[in-house]
Design a protein that fits this description.
Helix content is 48%, strand content 11%. Helix 2 packs across helix 10, helix 8 crosses helix 9 and helix 10 packs parallel to helix 11. The radius of gyration is 18 Å and the shape is globular. It is built from twelve helices and eight strands. The protein has a single domain, classed as Aldolase class I (TIM Barrel). The protein has 290 residues and is an alpha/beta fold. Strands 7-6-5-4-3-2-1-8 form an eight-stranded parallel beta sheet.
C-alpha cells in the first residue's frame, strides 16, 4: 500500500464546497443538445434488477441495435451493464460492436463473499462475453482498516482479468468522510483499478457531486505523479439532464477535456438515456424509448 504513503489523504470539506459552487455557477445551458448527445455516448445503460431475465435484456439490446436507425444523429451508448448470468444474452443479441458488454461481479452489490468465489464468478462472466467488470470494494474490510486484504483482493481480480477493464465501486454512500473516499480511491487505483466508480445504486445516497469531486481530485493527483489516466464513473440516481451535466462539468473542471470520452468517463444509469432522448428531440414526459 505504498500509494497511500505517497499522497496526502486529508480532504478539506470547505474547499470541496467552494469548488462545487464554482462549477454550479458556470454550468452550460441545460438545453445544449450537443452536450446532451455527448453525455448520451458516455452512458453505461444499466439494468440490475432481481426481475431481469432473457426477455427484458433482449429487448434492451434490440432497442440499442435500432437506435441508429430511429435516431441517426445520435451516438450509441458506451456500454450495456447486466448481471453475470445475462452476459451471454447480451453477447448473442447485441449487434453494435462499439457498445461494450459490462458485467457486475464479485458478489455484487455487497461484496460479502469469499475472494475465490468472486474470482470464479468474474471469470465465468468473461467467458460468456463480458468486456468490462464492475466490482465493489469490500467496504466492511476497508472500514475495519484491513487495507492489505482489500488491496490483495483487487490485485488478484485484476490479474485474472488481463486486458478486461476493471471498475472498482467505492460505495461512497457508506463512506461518510471525504478523506475516506479519497483513501478508498487511491487504494483502488494503486491495486489496479482502470476506473473508480461511486456507487452500486443499491445504497442511499448514490452518487453525490461532493464524492465525485473528491474522486476526481484523487485521479488528478495520481495522474500528476505517474502520468497514468484512470477513468471515473458516477452511478446511482443520475437520471436527468441537469444532474448529468453537473457531473460532466465536474470532470471537465478537474480532469479536463482528455477525460471527456468513453475511454475515461462513464455514467452508470437506467433512466438517463431515455430522458436525454426526450430532451434532445423535444418529446413529452410520457416519451419512452428505453
Amino acid at each position: 500500500m505504498k500509494i497511500l504513503s505517497d499522497f496526502n489523504l486529508t480532504v478539506d470539506a470547505e474547499q470541496v464546497k467552494q469548488l462545487l459552487e464554482k462549477i454550479k455557477n458556470s454550468l452550460p445551458p441545460p438545453g445544449n443538445k450537443e452536450t446532451l448527445k455527448k453525455i448520451f455516448g458516455l452512458i453505461d445503460l444499466t439494468t440490475l434488477s432481481e426481475r431481469d431475465n432473457i426477455e427484458n435484456v433482449s429487448l434492451m439490446c434490440e432497442k440499442i441495435n435500432l437506435l441508429s436507425e430511429v435516431y441517426p444523429s445520435m451516438p450509441g451508448v458506451a456500454a450495456i451493464c447486466v448481471y453475470p448470468e445475462l452476459v451471454s444474452v447480451v453477447k448473442e443479441k447485441l449487434e453494435n460492436p462499439l457498445v461494450n458488454i459490462v458485467s457486475v461481479g464479485g458478489g455484487f452489490p455487497a461484496s460479502q463473499t469469499f475472494t475465490n468465489i468472486k474470482v470464479i464468478e468474474i471469470e465465468q462472466a468473461i467467458e460468456q462475453g463480458a468486456e468490462e467488470i464492475d466490482i465493489v470494494l469490500p467496504v466492511g474490510k476497508f472500514l475495519m482498516e484491513d487495507l492489505e486484504y482489500v488491496e490483495y483482493e483487487i490485485q488478484i481480480i485484476k490479474q485474472r482479468l488481463g486486458p478486461v477493464h476493471l471498475k472498482v465501486i467505492l460505495e461512497t454512500g457508506s463512506l461518510k468522510d471525504y478523506s475516506l473516499i479519497r483513501k478508498a480511491s487511491l487504494l483502488a487505483i494503486g491495486a489496479g483499478a482502470d476506473f473508480i466508480k461511486t456507487s452500486t445504486g443499491k445504497v442511499s445516497p448514490g452518487a453525490t457531486p461532493e464524492a465525485m469531486i473528491v474522486m476526481c481530485g484523487a485521479i488528478k493527483d495520481y495522474y500528476n505523479r505517474t502520468g497514468k489516466k484512470i477513468g471515473i464513473k458516477p452511478a446511482g440516481g443520475i437520471s436527468d439532464a441537469p444532474t448529468a451535466i453537473l457531473y460532466y462539468s465536474i470532470v471537465k473542471e478537474i480532469l479536463g477535456e482528455d477525460w471527456l470520452n468513453c475511454e475515461r468517463f462513464r455514467i452508470g444509469a437506467s433512466r438517463l438515456a431515455n430522458n436525454l432522448l426526450a430532451d434532445i428531440f423535444d418529446k413529452g414526459p410520457d416519451f419512452g424509448y428505453f
